[in-house]
Design goal:
By secondary structure, this protein is mostly helical. The chain is built from 13 helices and no strands. The radius of gyration is 29 Å and the shape is globular.
């Protein structure tokens, strides 16, 4: 039996009383309902994180294993591998070289990155966008290409390979990292503040250091921390530019080819810990902006 349709006046009167929701209200209710993520997406995310971080967890786990070889089964917990790592003179010398290189390269990258960011932000000139792309090329290109290019350039200058060439190479590919964060921060700077300082009689240099630089100082620190982390962990470019003095990543890599012991796992864990500290500091500085 076919039911008779409800007369339109009746429907309108019911809607006017608020008994039936309107079409727009129904759509807004459906839009406001929190959507549950698909189960497959959650599983895939968990598998991805497991794939990324499980090898790191295994490395840290084996660095405490009381076994003379870097493998399972578990023989007991010990901290002797960390004591051996700290007492290993070549390992400590390579650590000192890494700290020297990273500190000097960070100074170069941050200083020239600040100058490049200020020039691109402040002045309009021909090839401005091309310059910005060119500065970013060292970090966009594969590490092998960058390393070979720097090696050929330094060889043409008859510059002997040493920690100096490593510092110059790390400074070059750290420059776009530092410049990027500073340039982004400069783009958010209210120009009226600089104009007000100029109207009050401040010279351009005084206006920069007293008004602009305090505004971008957190971005400068963030870029410097990130450049330090990249320099401290760099391997590929360093292989092409180093001389007789090894950095810590190169020392670990050289030992992995001959003698794999839990001492290497302990040293790698210390590198991981140091890098994590600098990354967390970078995030903390960035969150304060």
């Amino acid at each position: 039996m076919v039911m008779p349709a409800t007369p339109k006046p009746v429907v309108d009167s019911v809607n006017s009383l608020g008994i039936l929701p309107s079409i727009s209200q129904s759509k807004s209710i459906s839009r406001n309902k929190p959507s549950q993520p698909p189960i497959f997406l959650g599983i895939w995310t968990g598998v991805t994180f497991l794939f990324l971080y499980l090898p790191i967890a295994v490395l840290v786990f084996l660095s405490f294993n009381d076994s003379n070889i870097l493998s399972l089964p578990w023989q007991g917990i010990t901290g002797k591998w960390y004591s051996l790592a700290f007492g290993d003179r070549p390992l400590m010398e390579s650590l000192g070289n890494s700290l020297k290189v990273a500190t000097a390269a960070t100074g170069l990258a941050t200083g020239f990155g600040l100058l490049a960011a200020w020039g691109i932000y402040r002045y309009q000139f021909w090839g401005r966008n091309t310059l910005r792309i060119a500065v970013n090329l060292p970090i966009l290109l594969p590490g092998v290409v960058t390393g070979v290019a720097m090696l050929a350039y330094f060889s043409s200058l008859d510059l002997p390979l040493s920690l100096i060439t490593v510092i110059l190479g790390h400074g070059i590919f750290g420059l776009p990292v530092a410049m990027g964060s500073i340039l982004t921060r400069l783009g958010q700077f209210p120009q009226s503040l600089a104009e007000a300082a100029t109207d009050l009689g401040a010279k351009p240099g005084r206006a920069f250091w007293d008004v602009i630089f305090p505004y971008i100082s957190s971005a400068v620190a963030s870029g410097a921390l990130l450049a330090f982390t990249l320099s401290f962990d760099e391997v590929i470019v360093t292989i092409f530019l180093t001389g007789r003095d090894n950095t810590l990543p190169l020392e670990i890599w050289a030992r992995l080819r001959t003698d794999i012991t839990p001492e290497i796992a302990a040293a790698a864990t210390l590198v991981l810990l140091g890098s994590s500290v600098f990354v967390l500091l970078n995030q903390w500085v960035a969150s304060r902006e």
